[in-house]
């Protein structure tokens, strides 16, 4: 089902480990808010790009020595976040009647919990790794439904390319699913530049903000616009019309942040606003570049490959020390199975890509 370009090996042993690489997805038409808290069913459909050069690497093995799970997320010590992971694993055990405990080690090569969809790639990687380790033989659709219980956007990170997450209407989520509309190589020149305004975790989680945004007077209108926007977006991507894709993306972003402001939430900093102003200025110079942002201060810029250096150089004129992460469109998750010598340790990292 998933890419195995690093090799797939399964050892019939008490000490197997599964390592999974997934990519965060950045929405062009956004998901924010749920209609069912426990099932994480979204209020609106969304459409997102998987980012190849940003990834989560998660390794899961059995913890044979103790009747508890051990969780280690590199450079992340938020207790509430760790508790969410532990609660998800407990839910996994209950759903599939698993009697095992697990060691989980995970890391991102991009800032965690800062508005870059790390929870999506994280729970997608964890879901795949748990299912593979326990040999559940879940379909991709079943994996997406499982991952959604941890993070809504994890539904999309089960897939590669350009992904449409259908919100559905069924109360139990039977018609809520994701699918790849365009593969990663559909538009080879397309790039997203992630402007890292802050490396620090955000103070208000997406989940908590999602409970508040639904109270915005403008929220329902924003929700209702999603399907038509996604249809227009798909047509524009099919024809590779960067101007139309960018304008749809920006409009959806700005309307979402307007809804957030109506309920007293602002993720943008002064630097975020300055970067958006720079992008608008570049467009006046006939440079095709467009911004979006999510539940965090980071600004993402959609553009074409030949304009990346020009855009970054202009931003660094005002922010010389800012970090800019450039990515093309990401592929499917990668799964690697291996044998470890100690069930409480995870294998050495076989993935050395860095930004």
UniProtKB/TrEMBL annotation:
A single GO molecular-function term is: ATP binding
Q: Name one Pfam family in it.
A: MDD_C
Keyword check for Transcription: no
Q: Where does the UniProt annotation place the signal sequence? A: none
Protein origin, superkingdom? Bacteria
Domain Diphosphomevalonate decarboxylase-like N-terminal, first and last residues per copy: 23-178
The GO cellular component terms are: cytosol
Q: Where is the Mvd1 C-terminal domain?
A: 193-326
UniProt entry keywords in alphabetical sequence: ATP-binding, Lipid biosynthesis, Lipid metabolism, Lyase, Nucleotide-binding
Which GO biological process entries does UniProt record here? isopentenyl diphosphate biosynthetic process, mevalonate pathway
Statement: the UniProt record of this protein carries the keyword Nucleus: no
- The catalytic activity of this protein is classed by the Enzyme Commission as 4.1.1.33
Q: Give the family this protein belongs to, as stated in its UniProt record.
A: Belongs to the diphosphomevalonate decarboxylase family.
NCBIfam families per record: mevDPdecarb
Query: PANTHER family given for it?
Result: DIPHOSPHOMEVALONATE DECARBOXYLASE
Protein known as = diphosphomevalonate decarboxylase
């Amino acid at each position: 089902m998933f890419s195995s370009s690093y090799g797939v090996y399964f050892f019939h042993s008490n000490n197997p480990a599964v390592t999974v690489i997934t990519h965060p997805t950045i929405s062009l038409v956004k998901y924010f808010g749920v209609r069912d808290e426990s099932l994480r069913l979204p209020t609106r459909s969304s459409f997102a790009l998987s980012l190849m050069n940003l990834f989560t690497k998660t390794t899961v093995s059995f913890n044979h020595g103790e009747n508890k799970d051990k969780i280690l997320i590199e450079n992340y010590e938020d207790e509430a976040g760790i508790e969410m992971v532990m609660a998800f694993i407990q839910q996994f055990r209950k759903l599939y009647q698993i009697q095992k405990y697990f060691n989980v080690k995970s890391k991102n090569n991009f800032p965690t919990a800062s508005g870059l969809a790390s929870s999506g790639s994280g729970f997608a990687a964890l879901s795949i790794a748990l299912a593979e380790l326990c040999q559940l033989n879940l379909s991709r659709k079943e994996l997406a439904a499982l991952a959604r219980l941890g993070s809504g956007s994890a539904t999309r990170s089960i897939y590669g390319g350009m992904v449409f997450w259908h919100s559905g209407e069924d109360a139990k989520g039977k018609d809520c699913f994701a699918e790849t509309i365009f593969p990663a190589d559909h538009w080879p020149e397309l790039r997203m530049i992630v402007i890292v305004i802050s490396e620090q975790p955000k103070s208000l989680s997406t989940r908590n903000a999602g409970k508040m945004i639904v109270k915005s007077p403008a929220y329902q209108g924003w929700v209702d616009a999603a399907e038509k926007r996604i249809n227009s977006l798909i047509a524009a991507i099919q024809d590779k019309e960067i101007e139309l894709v960018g304008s749809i993306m920006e409009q959806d972003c700005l309307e979402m942040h307007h809804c957030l402001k109506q309920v007293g939430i602002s993720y943008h900093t002064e630097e975020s606003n300055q970067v958006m102003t720079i992008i608008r200025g570049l467009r006046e110079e006939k440079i095709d570049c467009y911004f979006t942002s999510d539940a965090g201060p980071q600004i993402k810029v959609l553009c074409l490959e030949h304009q990346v250096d020009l855009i970054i150089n202009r931003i660094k004129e005002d922010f010389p020390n800012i970090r800019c992460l450039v990515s093309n469109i990401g592929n499917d998750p990668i799964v690697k199975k291996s044998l470890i010598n100690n069930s409480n340790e995870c294998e050495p990292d076989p993935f050395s890509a860095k930004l």
